[in-house]
C-alpha cells in the first residue's frame, strides 16, 4: 500500500472518522479530531507500518496538522 | 543602579523603550546587531538582579554555568552513545537545583535556598527540554553562545512564556523581512496597550482594590459549613480575574518585547474563559506551560507505555498520563497541600471529561448539541476553573488553618 492510503487508514482507524478521506486538509488538532493520545498512537503506527522513526521532538503540530501535511512529512522522513 | 523588576513600573518601560530603539532601526534596515542586543540583555539582567537581589544574580550565574556544563557534557556523550540511565541521570541533575529550591522552604519554613532566583522554574523547563531533544537527536551539538542567549533572553526570563531552543535559534539567527517585521511591530504595540489595560488597570482593580476587601469579608464570616460564605465566593471570582489579567498582562509585555527584538516568542493565553471543556481550557491557558507538559511529559510517557506494551488499555494509559502531568505541575508550583490538590483536581476533571467525550461520541445521535448547550458548557467550565483557582490561591489554607 502507498503512503497516502496507509496514513488515511491509520487516521480513520484512530479517530473513527471516515470523512478524513474526503477532506485531506482537515485541521486535525483544531477540530479536536486528534488528541495527544491519538497522536502518539499514530506515530507508533507510522513506525510499525511504514518503518519511519518519528521521535516526539520531531513532532511539531504545525507541520503535522492535516492529513496532507502528515503525508508530506512521512515522505520526507522515508 | 536602581533595581527594576520586569514590567513592574513606568521607569522600566521608559528604559526598555529607549534601549530597544536602536534595535528597531537596525532590524528595519535588515541588520541584527547581536553585540548591542547582548548589551541590552545584560543591562536588564543587571537591573533585575542588582541591589538587594544580588545574591539571586549570583545564583543565576551559578545555575546557568551548571546547566550549560551538564547539557554540553550530555551532548558530547550523546554523539557517541545513547544509554537510558545516563539520560535519566542528566534529567535528574538538570532539575536538581529547582528541587532543592522547592524543598528548602518545605523542610525549613520561612527560609529560602541560596540557589534560588527569580525565573529558576522557567529556566529549568528550557534546560530539560534541551536535554530531551538532544536525546531524540533533534539537537545535535552544543552551541554555548546560543545556549546563553536562549536561557538569558531577558524579556521572558522571569515568568516565560517558555520558548524552545530550536525555535528560538531560528529567529535569533535571522533578520525578519521588512514587511513581516512591521507586522510584528504592529502586534507589539497592540500587545503593550492591551497589556497595560490588563495588568495595570484590571489586574490592579481585582488584585489590589477588590481582593483585600473580599478576603476580609470571607475571614469575617467564618464559622459555617467549611467556612463557606458570600465573601469566599467573591474571593474565588475576584482572585480568578486577578490571576488572569495580571499574568496575561505580563505575558503580553513579554511577547511584545520579544517581537520588537525580532523573536516570535509563543503566546501564553488565547481567550481561556471561552473554553467549552477543560481540555480546551488547557490549550488556551498558560499555553507554553501546558504544551511543555504535554510534549515533554504526557506524550513521552504515553509513547513509552505504548511502545513497551506495559498495558493494552488505552484509557488507563491516558489517565496515567494525566495524573502524572498534573501532579508534576502541582509539585512544580510548590510543595503545599493546595498546589497538589489543585493538580489532582485538574487530573480527575480531565479524566472525567474524557469519559464524557467518549460517551458523547458513542451516543451522538441522542445528545442535544446546539448554541445553548455550548454556552452552558462555557459557563460550567468557567465556574469549575474558578473553583480550582480558589484552591490554587492558597486562601483556603488561611481560611481553614490559620
UniProtKB/TrEMBL annotation, chain A:
O-(pantetheine 4'-phosphoryl)serine PTM positions: 36
Maturation and modification: 4'-phosphopantetheine is transferred from CoA to a specific serine of apo-DCP.
One of the protein's GO biological processes: cell wall organization
PROSITE patterns per record: CARRIER
Pathway: Cell wall biogenesis; lipoteichoic acid biosynthesis
Carrier domain mapped to chain residues: 1-78
Subcellular location: Cytoplasm
Pfam family, one: PP-binding
Entry's Gene Ontology cellular component terms: cytoplasm
Sorted UniProt keywords: Cell wall biogenesis/degradation, Cytoplasm, Ligase, Phosphopantetheine, Phosphoprotein
GO molecular function: D-alanyl carrier activity; ligase activity
Role according to the record: Carrier protein involved in the D-alanylation of lipoteichoic acid (LTA). The loading of thioester-linked D-alanine onto DltC is catalyzed by D-alanine--D-alanyl carrier protein ligase DltA. The DltC-carried D-alanyl group is further transferred to cell membrane phosphatidylglycerol (PG) by forming an ester bond, probably catalyzed by DltD. D-alanylation of LTA plays an important role in modulating the properties of the cell wall in Gram-positive bacteria, influencing the net charge of the cell wall.
Family classification: Belongs to the DltC family.
Protein name per its UniProtKB record: D-alanyl carrier protein
Source species of the chain: Latilactobacillus curvatus JCM 1096 = DSM 20019
UniProtKB/TrEMBL annotation, chain B:
Name by which UniProt lists this protein: Teichoic acid D-alanyltransferase
Principal location class: membrane
Keyword Protein transport: no
Localization per record: Cell membrane
Any GO BP: lipoteichoic acid biosynthetic process
GO cellular-component term (any): plasma membrane
Primary enzyme class: transferase
The keyword Transferase is annotated on this UniProt entry: yes
Lineage: Bacteria, Bacillati, Bacillota, Bacilli, Lactobacillales
Gene Ontology molecular function terms on file: acyltransferase activity
Membrane topology: Multi-pass membrane protein
Pathway given in the UniProt record: Cell wall biogenesis; lipoteichoic acid biosynthesis
Residues annotated as transmembrane: 12-28, 57-77, 89-107, 144-162, 192-212, 224-245, 315-333, 339-357, 377-396
Known EC number: 2.3.1.-
Source species of the chain: Latilactobacillus curvatus (Lactobacillus curvatus)
Amino acid at each position: 500500500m502507498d503512503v497516502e492510503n496507509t496514513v488515511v487508514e491509520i487516521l480513520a482507524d484512530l479517530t473513527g472518522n471516515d470523512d478524513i478521506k474526503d477532506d485531506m486538509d482537515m485541521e486535525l488538532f483544531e477540530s479536536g479530531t486528534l488528541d495527544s493520545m491519538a497522536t502518539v498512537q499514530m506515530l507508533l503506527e507510522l513506525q510499525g507500518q511504514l518503518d519511519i522513526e518519528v521521535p516526539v521532538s520531531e513532532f511539531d503540530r504545525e507541520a503535522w496538522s492535516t492529513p496532507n501535511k502528515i503525508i508530506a512529512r512521512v515522505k520526507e522522513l522515508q | 543602579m536602581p533595581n527594576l523588576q520586569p514590567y513592574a513600573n513606568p521607569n522600566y518601560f521608559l528604559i526598555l523603550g529607549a534601549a530597544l530603539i536602536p534595535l528597531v532601526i537596525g532590524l528595519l534596515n535588515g541588520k541584527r546587531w547581536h553585540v548591542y542586543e547582548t548589551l541590552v540583555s545584560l543591562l536588564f539582567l543587571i537591573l533585575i538582579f542588582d541591589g538587594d537581589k544580588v545574591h539571586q544574580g549570583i545564583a543565576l550565574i551559578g545555575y546557568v554555568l551548571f546547566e550549560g556544563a551538564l547539557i554540553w557534557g550530555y551532548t558530547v556523550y550523546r554523539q557517541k552513545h545513547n544509554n537510558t540511565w545516563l539520560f535519566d541521570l542528566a534529567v535528574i541533575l538538570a532539575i536538581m537545583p529547582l528541587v532543592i529550591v522547592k524543598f528548602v522552604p518545605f523542610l525549613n519554613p520561612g527560609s529560602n535556598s541560596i540557589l534560588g532566583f527569580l525565573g529558576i522554574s522557567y529556566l529549568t523547563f528550557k534546560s530539560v527540554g534541551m536535554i530531551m531533544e538532544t536525546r531524540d537527536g533533534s539537537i545535535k551539538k552544543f552551541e554555548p553562545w546560543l545556549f546563553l542567549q536562549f536561557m538569558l533572553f531577558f524579556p521572558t526570563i522571569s515568568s516565560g512564556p517558555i520558548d524552545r531552543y530550536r525555535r528560538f535559534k531560528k529567529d535569533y539567527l535571522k533578520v525578519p523581512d521588512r514587511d513581516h517585521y512591521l507586522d510584528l511591530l504592529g502586534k507589539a504595540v497592540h500587545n503593550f496597550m492591551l497589556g497595560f489595560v490588563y495588568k495595570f488597570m484590571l489586574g490592579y482593580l481585582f488584585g489590589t482594590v477588590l481582593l483585600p476587601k473580599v478576603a476580609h469579608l470571607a475571614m469575617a464570616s467564618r464559622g459555617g459549613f467549611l467556612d463557606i460564605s458570600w465573601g469566599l465566593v467573591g474571593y474565588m471570582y475576584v482572585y480568578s480575574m486577578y490571576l488572569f489579567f495580571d499574568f496575561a498582562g505580563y505575558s503580553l509585555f513579554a511577547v511584545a518585547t520579544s517581537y520588537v527584538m525580532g523573536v516570535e516568542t509563543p503566546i501564553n493565553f488565547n481567550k481561556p474563559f471561552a473554553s467549552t471543556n477543560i481540555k480546551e481550557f488547557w490549550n488556551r491557558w498558560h499555553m507554553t506551560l501546558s504544551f511543555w507538559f504535554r510534549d515533554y511529559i504526557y506524550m513521552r510517557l504515553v509513547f513509552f507505555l505504548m511502545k513497551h506494551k506495559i498495558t493494552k488499555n488505552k484509557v488507563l494509559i491516558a489517565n496515567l498520563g494525566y495524573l502524572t502531568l498534573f501532579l508534576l505541575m502541582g509539585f512544580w508550583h510548590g510543595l503545599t497541600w493546595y498546589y497538589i490538590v489543585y493538580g489532582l483536581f485538574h487530573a480527575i476533571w480531565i479524566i472525567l471529561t474524557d469519559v464524557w467525550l467518549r460517551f458523547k461520541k458513542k451516543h451522538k445521535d441522542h445528545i442535544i448539541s446546539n448554541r445553548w448547550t455550548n454556552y452552558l458548557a462555557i459557563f460550567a467550565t468557567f465556574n469549575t476553573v474558578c473553583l480550582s483557582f480558589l484552591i490554587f490561591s492558597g486562601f483556603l489554607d488561611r481560611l481553614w488553618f490559620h
